Amino acid sequence: xxxxxxxxxxxxxxxxxxxxxxxxxxxxxxxxxxxxxxxxxxxxxxxxxxxxxxxxxxxxxxxxxxxxxxxxxxxxxxxxxxxxxxxxxxxxxxxxxxxxxxxxxxxxxxxxxxxxxxxxxxxxxxxxxxxxxxxxxxxxxxxxxxxxxxxxxxxxxxxxxxxxxxxxxxxxxxxxxxxxxxxxxxxxxxxxxxxxxxxxxxxxxxxxxxxxxxxxxxxxxxxxxxxxxxxxxxxxxxxxxxxxxxxxxxxxxxxxxxxxxxxxxxxxxxxxxxxxxxxxxxxxxxxxxxxxxxxxxxxxxxxxxxxxxxxxxxxxxxxxxxxxxxxxxxxxxxxxxxxxxxxxxxxxxxxxxxxxxxxxxxxxxxxxxxxxxxxxxxxxxxxxxxxx
Length: 388
Description:
The protein is of the alpha+beta class. It has helices at 7-22, 34-41, 70-73, 93-103, 138-142, 148-171, 178-197, 265-284, 291-305; strands spanning 28-31, 53-56, 61-66, 81-85, 108-111, 132-135, 211-217, 238-247, 250-251, 257-260, 316-318, 325-329, 345-348, 351-353, 358-360, 363-367, 372-374, 386-387. It folds into 2 domains: 7-142, Creatine Amidinohydrolase, Chain A, domain 1; 148-387, Alpha-Beta Complex (Creatine Amidinohydrolase). The chain contains 9 helices and 18 strands. It has a 6-stranded mixed β-sheet with strand order 4-3-2-1-5-6. Strands 7, 8, 9, 10 and 18 form a 5-stranded mixed β-sheet that branches. Helix 6 crosses helix 7 (178-197) and helix 8 packs antiparallel against helix 9. The longest helix has 24 residues, at 148-171.
């Protein structure tokens, strides 16, 4: 199984960006977003108060970075020119980028934003103070569909996420602390992944890993984004788990609703409602299917069951380099009437949330030419998600 993208992927992406640039009157395309820069060049960095600016022209791929990133980006074969400033706020990052762009002969820019994001206190000037800037979202749209190489990485991620989840299920028991269970499961799966992949494992400064596993429990599960409470597991607890693995920056998503001890009749009922909703969504997926129709199918089921008041979010979202990416499986999203295409990879995670507990599975599913491929495969049925 592949564990890193081949150089040809980045070459194709930069070529596509140049094609988009050629369709405009701009002289250069610019990106401030760290994920977009990683997507185009493979250079990954943590977005801080020190802006990184990537510029692409018809014959150059150039970047400005703070001095502390020079050694990391210099060897990158997809970047032709590296220019650095010392630091921020002691230097002028945008002015450095302006000088680079002027040296490339650019007077008009197509950029992913008018300036660097105000991250960690950055307050510098915008690029639009120096150039005519047209806002573009080319990379966001390019990331909708994954290549075969990208799906290979997500498939590999799902394999290790599954192992991490197995370890979590083994370590979770009454009296155990969630932090300890999560740490043990993450460590055991990460060690196995590193031992198996060896030098093929690609370390990445962005994202956790290699394998990250955890859960929320008890009343925190009634909140879709509940926190890990400082309480030990007890018989009768509901858990909502999460497992992922980072493979060359790509991650899958695996979530399960689990029970510590035999669930009550009410818990079984809510679990089965959630499971049926996810099954409806999984069955509705496919190439050429309206994105909105999948969300509508689940909502109609919730209406039939009289539980719309227990729903808190849409059915799912695309996933890849980012944990959440468009397209969103959301009937109210402005792109929802577009259709699913081969290469789209979605999380499928309709949930129900009562006053005392939440119920949500999440699986990562790739749209194929002929249908779908479920990449995550931890068992979904009730009997397989009871910790006895």
